[in-house]
Amino acid sequence: MRKVLISLLCIAGVAAFTACGPKGGKKAKAEDGEVNLEKVAENIMQETFNGEKNTPEAADFWFKKRFGIPVADVTPDFEHGKQVGKYDFLGEEMSSSYVTFTAKDSTLKRDDFIEYVKKVYAATAKVADGGINVYGFVAKSDPAEAAAEKTLETVLDEGKPTSLFGIELYMGAYTWNFRKDGTYYMVDVKQLEKKKAGEEVPFAARTIIGQGLQKSLDESMKEAEKALSDPEVQKQIEKALKEKSN
């Protein structure tokens, strides 16, 4: 339910405050999955990225511009495949951006994944105000608690396996926030799974970063309701939904 509410907030915020950037231009695509630094350099002085959004270059551009984090800093140390899937990377100005890394032989070991979580945690703390990762307003309503440090130990403890009727349950998902220049950003690091020999097997790690709630959920919902009632915002949402359905 909370994710649904947050999605509504994002829709309202984007519709109310987003101005569409230019489309088209040169496509920046690296067939082997490596970031094409030359293409990134072509865009680095621009306000937006003129290229395909589902590329390593687009992800690197927006990770740097919005969050101050090069993709290299959230690239795993475990051996990962070079081939890029169509939706392994996403770089966008207003919504969340993400990067995905497929483990060698499409089998992601849990220890390797945990080490990757630690690396991403360190990368966000490095650019964060005060050098710390925090809880954010999704986890805490009180501003002081939302801005309090969420330690690595807490992050790992929240994501550790649980047991139900003797069966281990492991979600493979770790979340936290960080603030940069006073703005809250949400981080979600998770393992991706697919069926292999009839079983769900983890095969890749994905890091998603996007703007988080800047106020408590209750306050944000009130602002979202006000924004959603605006006729112009409703037009923007209707237009976006039509584009998505086409």
Describe the structure.
Mean pLDDT is 83; it is low at 1-8 and 10-31. The chain has 8 helices and 8 strands; from the N terminus they run αααββαβααβββββαα. The chain has a 6-stranded antiparallel β-sheet with strand order 1-2-8-7-6-3. It has a two-stranded antiparallel ribbon with strand order 4-5. The chain has helices spanning 2-17, 37-43, 56-67, 110-127, 143-146, 152-158, 217-228, 231-245; strands at residues 89-90, 97-102, 133-134, 162-164, 167-169, 173-180, 183-196, 199-211. The two termini are 27 Å apart.
Order of strands in the sheet with the most strands? Answer: 1-2-8-7-6-3
Largest sheet: number of strands, sense, barrel closure? 6 strands, antiparallel
Query: What is the end-to-end distance?
Result: 27 Å
Based on Cα principal axes, name the global outline.
globular
Number of helices: 8
Low-confidence stretches: 1-8, 10-31
Q: Using DSSP, what is the number of strands?
A: 8
Instruction: Kindly state the percentage of residues in helix.
Output: 25-40%
Order of helices and strands: HHHEEHEHHEEEEEHH
Average pLDDT over all residues: 83
SS-derived structural category: alpha+beta
Give the secondary structure arrangement, pairings included.
Elements: H1 2-17, H2 37-43, H3 56-67, E1 89-90, E2 97-102, H4 110-127, E3 133-134, H5 143-146, H6 152-158, E4 162-164, E5 167-169, E6 173-180, E7 183-196, E8 199-211, H7 217-228, H8 231-245
Antiparallel strand pairs: 1-2, 2-8, 3-6, 4-5, 6-7, 7-8
Helix pairs in contact: 1-7, 1-8, 2-3
